[in-house]
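re: the backbone from monday

yeah here it is again, tokenized this time
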């Protein structure tokens, strides 16, 4: 089982995860958001995910 990886912004409501995007797309989107808006992106692997 592969846990989804989630990226979210500390400065606004932006968030994306590998449930919606591929790993490559997710990192690209996160970098683009950080560059375009000057925001800080955090990533997490949700531990208590309800299945
Ligand atoms: Zn942001």
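seq for it, each position gets an aa:
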């Amino acid at each position: 089982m592969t846990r989804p990886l989630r990226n979210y912004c500390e400065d606004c409501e932006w968030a994306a995860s590998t449930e919606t995007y591929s790993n490559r797309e997710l990192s690209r989107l996160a970098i683009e958001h950080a560059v375009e808006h000057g925001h800080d992106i955090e990533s997490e692997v949700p531990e208590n995910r309800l299945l």
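The pocket of zinc ion is lined by residues 9, 11-12, 14, 33, 37, 39 (CB under 6 Å). The mean pLDDT is 91.
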